[in-house]
C-alpha cells in the first residue's frame, strides 16, 4: 500500500519499485492494521477509523463503560504541537 500527498510521487515510486520487485495492482484496501478506511472518491481517503480496535482494548481493560470524546485530528495535532488554532490561520 502506497500513500502520499502527490499522485506523481506515488506513481514514480511505483515505477521504481516495479523495476526491482514483482508487483501487481490490488483493489483498494478497506481495512489495514486494524483500521477501517473509507473513501468518497476512487483515490481519496475520506476517513480512517480505529473504532473496532479501541472497543476491543476498552473491553480488555474493563473500560467499556468509559465516556468517550471525539477529537478531530487537526485539533489533536495542534495540541501535541502546543499551538493554538488561531496561530496557524
Structure description:
β1 (31-32) and β2 form a beta hairpin. A 3-stranded antiparallel β-sheet has the order 1-2-3. The chain is of the alpha+beta class and 89 residues long. The protein is 37% helix and 13% strand. The chain is built from 3 helices and 3 strands; from the N terminus they run αβββαα. The chain has helices spanning 7-20, 51-60, 73-81; strands spanning 31-32, 35-39, 45-49.
Provide the descriptors you would attach to this structure in a database record.
single chain; 89 residues; alpha+beta; 3-stranded antiparallel beta sheet; 3 strands
**Rg, nearest Å:** 18 Å
Distance between the termini: 33 Å
Report the sheet-strand fraction.
5-15%
Ranges where pLDDT stays below 50 over 5 or more residues in a row are none
Q: Which outline best applies?
A: extended
Helical coverage, percent range: 25-40%
Number of helices: 3
The count of DSSP E runs of length 2 or more, i.e. the number of strands, is 3
Largest sheet: 3 strands, antiparallel
Q: Give the structural class.
A: alpha+beta
Q: What average pLDDT do the residues reach?
A: 76
